[in-house]
Specification:
Low-confidence stretches: 127-131, 137-157
CATH superfamily: Vaccinia Virus protein VP39
Number of helices: 5
Helix content: 25-40%
Structural class: alpha/beta
Radius of gyration: 15 Å
Oligomer: single chain
Strand order of the largest sheet: 3-2-1-4-6-5
Distance between the termini: 33 Å
Order of helices and strands: HHHEHEHEEEE
CATH architecture: 3-Layer(aba) Sandwich
Strand content: 15-25%
Number of domains: 1
CATH topology: Rossmann fold
Amino acid sequence: MSATAWGELAEWYDAKQGDTGDLWHRTLIDPTFLRVVGEVRGLRVLDLGCGNGYLSRRFARAGAVVTGVDDSAPIIERARAHDTRDLLGIDYRVADAAHLALLKNATFDLVTSNMALMDIEAPVTGRPSRMRSPGESRGGPSRQRDTTGPSPGTHAPCATRAS
């Protein structure tokens, strides 16, 4: 779906997802996704296709430093409005997930995308270029746990972690 179409649905989508996701997400999607993501405390997390930011806020409350990216400005406005109330310090950006030049100097420990790859016209594949490499973690060697889900375009959640 295009950014324009999502913009037209922003109010409805934000109300539907709220602060904890809708029933479908809470009961079927998020439990598995969050189990795959694991502990985020102290990590720099990029939430690609963050929508209204309900998962970005969850990660921030769990101690992560979060950047949320979505290509729909009206949806990002709603995500920022939630953060204004919660004061979680999430950096929300309007950008196409396939073209993240605005983050070219950023480094992330974890990149997530939950139920968004099917809406990205040219989905990101492979390892994001500024994700920490194994051995590059803060404080010494790291083990990379690649938790990338099925191929882009499917409805499965995915996350890639280098920790």
